[in-house]
Amino acid sequence: MEIEQPVDAPRAAAVGADAVLLDNMSPAETERAVSLVTDHETPPTLEASGGITLETAADYAVTGVDVVSMGSLTHSTPTLEYSFRTGAAD
């Protein structure tokens, strides 16, 4: 389940979400969302995502989330062109 406000984290846990994506939250908001579900009977897996870069990943990692994801790892990387040739050797 995807949420955009910390206050929605316990609501997601209450309806039985196994995993909750904390979308576009600041590190402080992320930490708040974590604190709101820590005492839940079966807290969901929490993933921070949205706007996270290599420079800010550590700020999110210390918030208590289970996963930090960064789209910048894939959508901002340079491409590499290559090919394979198969068949009998000449």
Average pLDDT score: 92
Q: Which percent range fits the helix content?
A: 25-40%
Largest sheet data:
4 strands, parallel
Rounded to an integer in angstroms, the radius of gyration calculated over CA atoms is 19 Å
Strand content: 15-25%
Indicate the CATH architecture: Alpha-Beta Barrel
**Helix/sheet category:** alpha/beta
Please trace the helix and strand order, writing H or E for each element.
EHEHEHEH
Q: Which stretches are poorly predicted, pLDDT < 50 over at least 5 residues?
A: none
Number of domains: 1
| CATH fold call | TIM Barrel
Please write the CATH class name.
Answer: Alpha Beta
Between the first and last Cα atoms, what is the distance in angstroms? 56 Å
Q: Any idea what the shape is?
A: elongated
Topology, number of strands: 4
How are the strands ordered across the major sheet? 1-2-3-4
Helix count, per DSSP? 4
CATH H-tier superfamily: Aldolase class I
Quick overview of this protein structure:
With 90 residues, the chain is of the alpha/beta class. The chain contains four helices and four strands. It has helices at 8-14, 27-37, 57-61, 72-75, and strands at residues 2-3, 19-23, 45-49, 67-68.
Explain what the structure shows.
It is a single chain. This protein is α/β, with parallel strands linked by helices. The protein has a single domain (2-74), classed as TIM Barrel. It has four helices and four strands. It has a four-stranded parallel sheet with strand order 1-2-3-4. Helix 2 (27-37) links the parallel strand 2 and strand 3. The protein is elongated.
